[in-house]
Amino acid sequence: MSAPVSPGRSGPAADRARRRNPLWRMIALAWPRGGRFALGVLLGAFATGAGVALLAVAAWMLATAANHPSITALSVAVVATRALGVTRGVARYLERLVTHDAAFRTLAEVRVRVYERLAATEPFGRFRSGDLVSRLVNDTEATLDLLVRGLTPPLISVVTGGATVLFLTAVYAPGGLLLAAGLLLAGLAVPLAAAALGRGPGRRQSRARGELSTALVDTLHGAPDLVAYGAMDRQVERVHAADAELTRLARRDAAVLGLGAGASALITGLTVWGALLLGVAAVEGGTLSAVSLAVLVLTTLAAFEIVAPLPAVAAKLGAIRESGARLFGVLDVPAATAAPPTRRPPPPPTDAFGAEPTPAGLDPDGDPTVLIRDLRVRYGPREPWALDGVDLEIPAGWTVAVVGPSGAGKSTLASVLLRFRDPDGGSVSIGGADITSYPADEVRAVVSGVPQDPHVFASTLRENLRLARPGAPDGELWAALRRARLADEVAAMPKGLDTLVGTHGLGLSGGMVQRLALARAVLAAPRVLVLDEPTAHLDPDARDAVVADLLDAVEDYSTLLITHDLTGLERVDRIYVVREGRVLQEGTHAELAEADGWYRDVLTP
């Protein structure tokens, strides 16, 4: 069989995507809703234009009223003023409604993509938990900031600012040109300067926020160990240092915002004074009326409302860009498994509780035999082989152990069998069917695992068990607990299945956590069980008991037991010794105990 292309290797298109500016990539996420954002821009321009027009009409009405005309001459302006006031509020509301609706829908899609990425290939293993939380929350929500505050206001400013300049140019050409220059300074030069000043602090601010989140999560989760080893003070200092750095960067960001606001106010004042001086000169020269002067000056003043949000937006672009880079740092993690070229029928689960199995799927005959031939896996093109030509067989109903020192490739073997990673060479089949020909979820319907660090959610025993089979009745839950030798302990608890296990299962002993994970795996009704270092963190007494219970519980399954501990292996059907990604020995416990090699050396030191 030829080696499949490793999905972890990115192609030219993926590399080009990663090199693109994160801001443009974040905007591209909203492309399916481009029409909604365009409508929002038009509504925003209408609202902002109504505000400018409101002041212009008010200026004309006040200046005209100074000449004591008849009330009929002012009636149109009075009605227009009221209409513009109402229009401004309604248009602004509709603009916020449309743009926020589109932005929140886009944000929801981004969150779904992030969670799907995490669920598909587990890239969270590359990130520390606190930093990943910051990426999932703050950096993902930066998409909303960019679309609502970074995209819409500049477009509104272009539309409304251009229309206002054209209007004032028609009233008095020098005044229109002066306004155009002022708007370019306040709406382009100042934001560019703010963006340049805020780029560095913004980039560091996103990283500092991730560091603070990491420090807090590490402190909370590791509090018992930190207290036990007297390291809590140092950890608290780390939190304080991260908080101080984030505060310093926030102050720098506030200073940039203040400078931008001050520069905009200065340009606004100078432009208004310039318009006033030009207008007065024109009135004295007879080229401009007094009413037009009032309209010119007050419209110039109102026009700067158009570009007022831009410096603050530009100052945030550095932080938003870094957040986007961190977001795509998760989304761009290459897949560890490739989707099969065609969808095939799902494998039939063997129900341990009496349900009839589906007669079609991965193995039509229901044969749970696992056959691994010449399996080769590595984690990068230049990395050494984690598995280098492994041959292994798990006959139906057998328990097979894979033993060896840490780093031998045992956990990589489990990852391949559970379809968390595709082979770079060789094949893995169940009942004669290659597992890479089926979607990962369908393979996991017949292959269930108990990892060395099973995750237990801060909920009840019942809900932790139902992760394997949502809606399973209590009778099936108790049957799974009995099979895992945990039913007596749960029955002795005052709340039984409603007992809260605590954060990360702190309310349970290490052995109970392992048995709970086994019960959850059994409840999933697999045909093949993979036990990856199930006793890694247990003391010797608990380890012996857990191994005995595990081996009793898996008698009816094709089971792969991965371990570096030789406790209880006299009960397994076959043992494979793996070192440096190769199978060095195989046989029964008695055979390996008599043969020269790693197994006997560890068994009898």
Automatic annotation (TrEMBL):
What segment(s) does the record annotate as region Disordered? 337-367
The molecular function terms of the Gene Ontology recorded here are: ABC-type transporter activity; ATP binding; ATP hydrolysis activity; ATPase-coupled lipid transmembrane transporter activity
Describe its membrane topology: Multi-pass membrane protein
Domain spans labelled ABC transmembrane type-1:
38-322
Q: Which keywords belong to this entry?
A: ATP-binding, Membrane, Nucleotide-binding, Transmembrane, Transmembrane helix
Q: Which SMART domains match?
A: AAA
Question: Membrane-crossing residues?
Answer: 37-63, 69-87, 155-173, 179-197, 256-282, 288-308
Residue stretches making up the ABC transporter domain: 372-605
Pfam families, per this entry?
ABC_membrane, ABC_tran
The superkingdom listed in its UniProt entry is Bacteria
Where does this one sit in the cell? Cell membrane
A biological process from GO: cell redox homeostasis
> Cellular component terms, GO, for this chain's entry?
plasma membrane
Q: Please name the NCBIfam families in this protein's record.
A: CydC
Report what the protein is called: ATP-binding cassette subfamily C protein CydC
The source organism is Nocardiopsis aegyptia
Q: Kindly list the organism's lineage.
A: Bacteria, Bacillati, Actinomycetota, Actinomycetes, Streptosporangiales
